[in-house]
UniProtKB/TrEMBL annotation, chain A:
Belongs to the sulfur carrier protein TusA family. This is Sulfurtransferase TusA family protein. It comes from Cohnella ginsengisoli. The lineage of its organism: Bacteria, Bacillati, Bacillota, Bacilli, Bacillales. PANTHER family: SULFUR CARRIER PROTEIN YEDF-RELATED. Coiled coil: none annotated.
From TrEMBL, chain B:
SUPFAM superfamilies: Metallo-hydrolase/oxidoreductase, Rhodanese/Cell cycle control phosphatase. It catalyses: 3',5'-cyclic UMP + H2O = UMP + H(+); 3',5'-cyclic CMP + H2O = CMP + H(+). Pfam families: Lactamase_B, Rhodanese. One of its GO terms (molecular function) is sulfur dioxygenase activity. One of its GO terms (biological process) is hydrogen sulfide metabolic process. This is MBL fold metallo-hydrolase. Counteracts the endogenous Pycsar antiviral defense system. Phosphodiesterase that enables metal-dependent hydrolysis of host cyclic nucleotide Pycsar defense signals such as cCMP and cUMP. Residues 21-117 form the Rhodanese domain. SMART domains: Lactamase_B, RHOD.
Length: 191, 382
C-alpha cells in the first residue's frame, strides 16, 4: 500500500452521524479546487453517506481505505469550470482510440496527471503518474520524442499538461478525452 | 433550549401503535437513498419521503416544501443523530408537531410487540411477538407457571421479562429451523433461564453446541396441563424445517408457509435440491392436517398481513383458498416460481447462519449490523 497524499486531514473519529459529513462540508468549503481531503471516521454509516453526498454536490469521491476501526475517505474538491473550460491543445483522441491503440500493442506512453490520491484507487496499468502541479519540475522523467497520451479525469488538466509539454519542445503529445471518468478499459489500483 | 421547543421524541413502541391503529403520520426519512430504498417504515396510513440529511446541511427550505403543514411529522434516520439535527431545524423554521424517532431504524428493527393469539385448553395462553420493523414473529406458550418460546429473537430480555410478568418459568426454547435472516436468541435464552434448547437435527449437523433433537412425534409438554407441542417434519425452506402443532389448535409453520406467500428454498443451499420437499410439505403434508388449524408463521412480508392488534394469523383452509403459493397446480410452474426471480437474499445471511451454528461469535453491535434490513424469507417479498 502506498501512502496517499492529501492536502488536509480531517479527524472525525468517534463522531456519530451527521457530524462527519457536517465537518467534511465545512472543511471542503475552505479548500481550493483540485485539493484532496482525507476524512478519518469510525462511523460505518459514513461510507455510504459520503459517497452519496459527493455525488449530489459534484465533488469527486476517490475511495476509502479501511485501517482497523478507522475508515479513511478521500475526496477531491472539484471546480465549477473543470468540465466547461475551453481546451486549447489541438491533438485530441477519445478513450476508445487510446484503448484500441493499447489493444493493438502500439508503443504509447500514458501520462496520468491526476493527483496521486486519485491515481492510487484507479489507473491504467503502466501509466506514468505525475500530478499536473509537479509536471514542470519532473519533466525530465519524460522523453521529448515519445508518443505521449495525457490523461486526467475529464480532459481539462490533461489539456493544460499537453500545452506545457508542447511549450517545452515535446513533439508527439495527445490529449485523451474524456479521460478516467469514462474509462472502460483495464485498470489497476494499490488498494 | 429555545431551539428545541416543540420538538419531542417518539419511541419505536409509540410508532408501532400508530402503524397498528392506522393513524395518519408523515415521515421524513433522512438516510441515504440506497438505505431508504432497501428498507423503510411502512404502514397503510403512513406517507413517507426521503431527503438525505446531507442534502439539508445548508437549510431545510427544500424539505419544507415537501412536508405538509399541520400534519404530524416524524423524522427518521439510521441511529437518531441526523434525524434530531434535521428535526431541530424544521422546528426552528416554525413548524410544530415535529418528532424524531428515538434510536432511529436500529430501534425500529429491534422493537417487539407482544400480541395475545388466544387461550389454550387448561388455562394457558399463546402469545405472538411481532418484530414489526423486520417482519419476524416469535411465540410464547404459557401454561401453569411454565413457558416455551418458539423462534426466539436476539432480544432475549424481552422474553425473560414477559415470562416473569406472567409468573412463568421458561422451560423450553425451540427453533423451527436454522434461521438465515436473523440471529436466533434460542440458545442464549435457554442458557440464561436454564431451559432446554431444541433444534431440528437435520439443520444442526454443523452446530458447535449441545441441543435437544426435535423429532417427529416427540411431544413437549408445557405446564401441568398438557399443552402438546407436536413437531412435524416439514422440509423445504431448510432440510430440517419442522412445524409445531400447539394444543391441536395452532400450526406454527416457521418459514415454510406464510400468510400471503411461501418460503424460499435457496438460503441454505441450492433451491433446486429442496423444491420437491417444499412442494411435498405444502401440497401434501399440510393438506393432510385438520384444515381448521390456525397458521402462525415465523414472518410476515407486508403490513397488510397484520391483523387485529398486529396479530399475524389465518386458518389453514383460508390459505389453501387465497395464498398464491398453495395454488400452483402445475409442478413445473411451482418449480419456476420458487427458484427463479427470487428476491435479493437477506443482509449477511451466510454470516447469520454461521452465527446460529455457533461458528461465529459477533459482538452485540456486529449482530445488530448483520440483521439490518428486511427479512426476505418468502418467495414473493419484493
Amino acid at each position: 500500500m502506498s501512502v496517499i497524499h492529501a492536502n488536509q486531514t480531517l479527524d472525525c473519529k468517534g463522531l456519530a452521524c451527521p457530524m462527519p459529513i457536517v465537518k467534511t462540508k465545512k472543511a471542503m468549503d475552505q479548500l481550493e479546487a483540485g485539493q484532496v481531503i482525507e476524512v478519518q471516521a469510525t462511523d460505518k454509516g459514513s461510507l455510504a453517506d459520503i459517497q452519496s453526498w459527493a455525488k449530489n454536490t459534484g465533488h469527486q469521491y476517490l475511495g476509502t481505505v479501511e485501517e482497523g476501526e478507522v475508515l479513511k475517505h478521500y475526496l477531491r474538491k472539484s471546480s465549477p469550470g473543470e468540465v466547461k473550460e475551453e481546451r486549447k491543445h489541438p491533438d485530441v483522441v477519445t478513450n476508445e482510440v487510446l484503448l484500441a491503440k493499447l489493444a493493438a500493442g502500439e508503443n504509447v506512453k500514458i501520462l496520468d496527471v491526476r493527483e496521486q490520491a486519485e491515481n492510487v484507487f484507479n489507473r491504467i496499468p503502466g501509466a506514468i503518474s505525475i500530478p499536473l502541479g509537479e509536471l514542470e519540475n519532473r519533466i525530465n522523467e519524460l522523453k521529448p520524442d515519445d508518443d505521449i497520451h495525457v490523461i486526467c479525469r475529464t480532459g481539462t488538466r490533461s489539456d493544460l499538461a499537453c500545452q506545457l509539454l508542447t511549450e517545452k519542445g515535446f513533439k508527439n503529445v495527445t490529449n485523451v478525452e474524456p479521460g478516467m471518468s469514462g474509462w472502460t478499459g483495464p485498470t489497476e489500483n494499490n488498494h | 433550549m429555545e431551539a428545541t421547543t416543540g420538538l419531542s421524541i417518539m419511541t419505536a413502541k409509540e410508532l408501532t401503535q400508530i402503524v397498528l391503529a392506522h393513524e395518519e403520520l408523515f415521515i421524513l426519512d433522512v438516510r441515504n437513498e440506497s438505505d431508504f430504498n432497501d428498507w423503510k417504515v411502512e404502514g397503510e396510513s403512513i406517507d413517507i419521503v426521503n431527503i438525505p440529511y446531507f442534502d439539508l446541511l445548508d437549510g431545510v427550505d427544500d424539505a419544507l416544501d415537501k412536508i405538509p403543514d399541520g400534519k404530524k411529522l416524524l423524522v427518521v434516520c439510521a441511529k437518531e443523530g441526523s434525524s434530531k439535527f434535521v428535526a431541530e431545524q424544521i422546528v426552528e423554521a416554525g413548524r410544530t408537531n415535529v418528532q424524531y424517532l428515538e434510536g432511529g431504524m436500529k430501534s425500529w428493527s429491534e422493537h417487539l410487540e407482544p400480541v395475545k393469539v388466544g387461550e389454550l385448553n387448561g388455562g394457558g395462553s399463546l402469545y405472538q411477538f411481532v418484530r414489526i420493523g423486520k417482519g419476524c414473529l416469535s411465540y410464547m406458550v404459557v401454561s401453569n407457571g411454565e413457558a416455551a418460546v418458539i423462534d426466539t429473537l436476539r432480544m432475549t430480555d424481552v422474553f425473560e421479562q414477559f415470562a416473569k410478568a406472567q409468573g412463568a418459568q421458561i422451560k423450553h426454547t425451540l427453533d423451527t429451523h436454522l434461521h438465515a435472516d436473523h440471529i436466533s436468541g434460542g440458545r442464549k435464552l435457554a442458557e440464561q433461564t436454564g431451559a432446554t434448547y431444541w433444534l431440528p437435527p437435520k439443520d444442526a449437523g454443523e452446530v458447535t453446541f449441545a441441543y435437544e433433537k426435535l423429532e417427529e412425534g416427540r411431544n413437549i409438554t408445557v405446564g401441568n396441563t398438557t399443552i402438546r407441542i407436536q413437531p412435524l417434519y416439514s422440509p423445504g425452506h431448510t432440510i430440517g424445517s419442522t412445524s409445531f402443532i400447539v394444543d391441536d389448535q395452532y400450526l406454527l409453520t416457521g418459514d415454510i408457509l406464510f400468510i400471503e406467500s411461501i418460503g424460499r428454498p435457496d438460503l441454505a443451499g441450492k433451491a433446486e435440491d429442496w423444491v420437491s420437499d417444499l412442494r411435498e410439505t405444502l401440497y401434501s403434508r399440510y393438506k393432510g392436517l385438520p384444515q381448521d388449524l390456525f397458521v402462525l408463521p415465523a414472518h410476515f412480508g407486508k403490513v397488510t398481513e397484520l391483523g387485529e392488534g398486529g396479530r399475524v394469523m389465518a386458518k389453514l383452509s383460508d390459505l389453501y383458498r387465497n395464498n398464491p403459493g398453495l395454488n400452483m397446480k402445475e409442478e413445473d410452474a411451482f418449480r419456476r416460481a420458487v427458484t427463479e426471480n427470487l428476491p435479493p437474499q437477506p443482509n449477511a445471511y451466510q454470516e447469520i447462519r454461521q452465527t446460529n451454528m455457533g461458528k461465529m461469535n459477533p459482538s452485540e453491535d456486529e449482530q445488530r449490523e448483520m440483521e439490518i434490513g428486511p427479512n426476505r424469507c418468502a418467495v414473493h417479498d419484493r
